[in-house]
Amino acid sequence: MGKRLGIPSALLYYVYYPFWLAFFNEIGVQVVTSKGTTKSILDKGVREALADACVPIKLFFGHVMELKNKCDCLFIPRVVCLNGKTIYCPKFLGLPDMIRHSLDGLPPIIDVRIDARQGRLSKLKAFLEIGSYFGVGRNIVLKAYCKAMLVLRRYHRLLRKGLNPLEAMEYMENPNNKKLALPPKANLKFAVLGYPYSIYDSFISVNLLDKLKNMGVSVLTTENINPLVLAWQKNCGLPKRLFWTFSDAVLKAAYYLFRRGRVDAVLHLTAFGCGPDSILNKFIELEAKQHGDIPFMTLMIDEHTGEAGMTTRLEAFVDMVRRRKEVSPCQN
Ligand code: SF4
Prior knowledge:
Blueprint: E1 4-7, H1 13-26, E2 30-33, H2 39-48, H3 55-67, E3 73-75, E4 78-81, H4 90-93, H5 95-102, E5 109-110, E6 113-115, H6 122-133, H7 138-160, H8 165-173, H9 178-181, E7 188-193, H10 196-199, H11 208-214, E8 217-221, H12 227-232, H13 245-260, E9 265-271, H14 275-290, E10 296-301, H15 307-327
Helix pairs in contact: 1-7, 2-3, 6-7, 13-14
Bound molecules: iron/sulfur cluster.
């Protein structure tokens, strides 16, 4: 039997899992994931990770703990830069080292470095290196890489249609699921800004997206916006763009949505202890102040975030936006 590769369902999982799965399936490697976050996974992560880490990193630790006895090796790439312009948060860069030096009894870690600033073929080279780890020849890796790129494009198309990453992954597995192909009926439309691994992890976001849906609110996120539209926002009025990939994308989405997004309100989900967010939050708040006609709220999550508190704040906010829209229906 071939090697089983463990991929934690956290952080870049929400962005690249369809690509990784297609690639590894094509080279004959069996993939196992840690599935959705549970309280036990979060507790394990909180126990094992550094106390001052942000909750997404703690959660990643928990997902690794969940997987470590179910696979023969772990996939924790050192993702530095994928677009040649911005880099990932320093926690991503040090992730394989943090995991390796904090947790005992782990299987081998595939921690290939991916840095698009090192040349046009650097991403492909990284996957050739991964292929060589499994003893797979160059031609098979090339074919797998091309196939995975096509899968990623299809995934992105589904996100642009308004699905969230989990829905898009489900739809790719089961295209006959008509329910997923249809946008939900809603009388309010909110932009939800934040990092994909916080927003779409229903456990740490305390089910934010489903709560909104149940309150009759449709949601637009950074992932649903065409990347070309985001690229047109340039530096969002700043002398230079933000360094960090996700923060740069979220600021561009905020800039676009406040100016042209035609949304009824904007919510920003931020993680306690996030370094990049200490800067990003400020810029989003300044943008929100310039557009006082669009209600804005920041929600901060950490490992102690409670369901009741989040629900109360959301319900109050949605009620306020709904009443405001009833009084002035022409807004947005
Ligand atoms: S960007 Fe913030 S939330 Fe994301 S990993 Fe880095 S510190 Fe954590």
